Structures are given as structure tokens and as C-alpha cells.
Amino acid sequence: MKLTLRVWRQQNAEAPGAMATYEVDGISQDMSFLEMLDTLNEELILGGDESVAFDHDCREGICGACSLVINGDAHGPERTTTCQLHMRSFDDGDTIDIEPWRASAFPVVKDLVVDRSSFDRIIQAGGYISAPTGTAPDAHATPVPKPDADSAFEHAECIGCGACVAACPNGSAMLFTSAKVNHLGVLPQGAPERETRVLDMVATMDDEGFGGCTLTGECATACPKGIPLPSITAMNKEWLRANRKVRR
Fold first, then answer.
1. DSSP the chain
2. Among candidates 165, 245, 153, which has minimal Cα distance to 199?
3. Mean pLDDT value across residues 122-131
């Protein structure tokens, strides 16, 4: 395959950025999108140019590091992570636009790399769960109803990639935050801090500069792990309940 790549190049958050055009040839349809970028970078380095900076880690669809907007879609045309997107999703001769996440809370570090430490601060605001010390309890000591366990597992699948923010017209982080809130909120181990957790995490999310949620649903459509849109509704109900209790 021969492709034309239009890649966003930007030295840092303060420097102006622009799209740079590159041609790559000999791309196999079995390559992942990141392997295709590796090929581009090898050619750039051999030609004496600076390689394109992009995030990656596990390349197995688990870590959520591979944050790219491809032809206007977070992670590209398939509902998966960029590292699991293969070049067979494109045609020979295609022009592909590659950009970083676009959100004020995700400042550009360099080229396609953005700083997503705001997500870390939202998680940190949630604190810890209360747990008794001493010997480990038996696995069946705290029964969890299956619907609650299923919901916790569903929300725990969130890998914090930020695709929800990149896809949202408002740059909202509500789907990410709701996944983290609901993950612990439905379990008995997370019950003692349930109210303070949702209030603190939502407040931190707002402080980080993420946009407001208008439930357009783009976040859930782009989520590679399928976190459902009703997760946001559940968190909103939890927040209202906790906020009313604090005001009393």
C-alpha cells in the first residue's frame, strides 16, 4: 500500500503547530497503525529528519496510551484502540489525517503526544476504599449480587485512553469519570466513601477544565471498551443524592 499521511507536528504546547505531509510506501495491510507510524519514523530518521512523537506502550489494547485522532475519529474508523487498528481498514492511495486529542485539559506535549495527567488527578480525588486490616478475608465473606458485580466489571474496563474526551463536541470527561465512580460505587467495599468520592471526582473534573456534558453520545460511540452512556446518568443521580445530603 502507498499512503499519503498528513500528520500534526508541534514542538510543544506553546509553539504553533501545522500539518506536515509525508508519503509512505510498502505498507502491509497486516500492519497495525502504530507499526505504520514506526515505518514512517524509520524513513524520517534515515533521511535526517526528526521522527514523529506519538504515545504507545503495551500495543495490546489494554493501556490506553495510543491516543490519536485519525481522519477525524478518535482511534480511527474501527471501535478499537489505535494499536489494534490495522491498515486493512484503509485503501491503497488513501490520504490519512493524524492529529492529537483536541481538548484544553489535554495540552500537547509534542506532535501527537498530549498530557493526560488530568485523568490521574481525577482518580486521585476519588481517594481509597475503606478496608479492614489483618488477615485477608475469605472470597465469599462479602457477598456481591451478580448485577452489581457485572456493572462493576463493565465500568472497570475503562482504560483511561481519553477517546471519550476527544470525541465529545464539548471536550467532556463525564464518561471517564462516571466509569471510575460507578466501578466502586456499586460494590460494598466502596460504599463508605461513596458520597465524598463522587463529589470530589466531579469537582476535580470541573477544575481541570473539561467541558460540560450534553449527552450527545459521541463519547460512548468512540469508547473502545464500550462503556455505556447510561453510566453518566447513574453518576449524575449519585452526585445529586450526595449533594443533597451534604447540604442538609
1. --EEEEEEE-SSSSS--EEEEEEE----TTSBHHHHHHHHHHHHHHTTPPPPP---S-SSSSS-----EETTEET-SSSS-GGG-BGGGS-TT-EEEEE----TTS-EEETTEE--HHHHHHHHHT-------SSPPPTTSS---HHHHHHHHHHHT-----HHHHHSTT---HHHHHHHHHHHHTSGGGSTTHHHHHHHHHHHHHHTTPPPP---SHHHHH-TT---THHHHHHHHHHHHHHHHHH-
2. 245
3. 87
- For residue range 72-97, what is the model confidence (pLDDT) as tens digits? 999 999 999 999 999 999 999 999 99
Cell 495490546 sits at which residue? 60
Determine the pLDDT at residue 138: 77
